[in-house]
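Predict the holo structure. Ligand: fe (ii) ion.
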Amino acid sequence: MFDRDHFIEDCIKAVSGGQEPIREVVAAALSDSAGMMSELGEPQHAGITPIYRANDLTIINFVWAPCMSLMPHNHQMFAVVGVYSGREDNVFWRRKATTIEAAGAQSLGAGDIATLGRDVIHSVLNPIGKMTCAVHVYGGDFFDPEEPRSEWDHETLIERPWNVDEVKSLFREAEERFSATKNKSPGGNPPGL
Ligand SMILES: [Fe+2]
């Protein structure tokens, strides 16, 4: 059975061993994805909610809004992603002169894990019409990385500094956009008309 506090303790114990022991902890948690949902809570809003934060470890509960995408970015620390509900489509990118090019992809459904090395660049899409929920475990302080982090413009693929406040806004805007679409009548009229 998944237990949030035990999961945090297990990650704290595992992180000094690096990415593989963390992957094993996340894999064990995912064997009870229904328990993860009940312990972490049915998603009410899209967003990134830290459930543990230290210099060497951050655990975040990610709730992706329906059909939202997040531009390519790096982390400057290893990451283990475990999806417990919905779907996360990852595109992996590699640097090419002044821009980046797509180099691979991994689609994660409930129970699936992705392991990302510290230099990996990825973008994420929730391709379905409901929230997607995942735990992301990072081998460092996600919110204050030792090395500056980058993101790449979705359209031009030009690199720029990563900004966590912009990322949080993206989650809010994606949820608002989805809610606005959901509330529209099929004819495109505002609700109530
Ligand atoms: Fe990421």
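The CA atoms of residues 133 and 193 lie 34 Å apart. Residues 4-182 form a domain with the Jelly Rolls fold (CATH 2.60.120.10).
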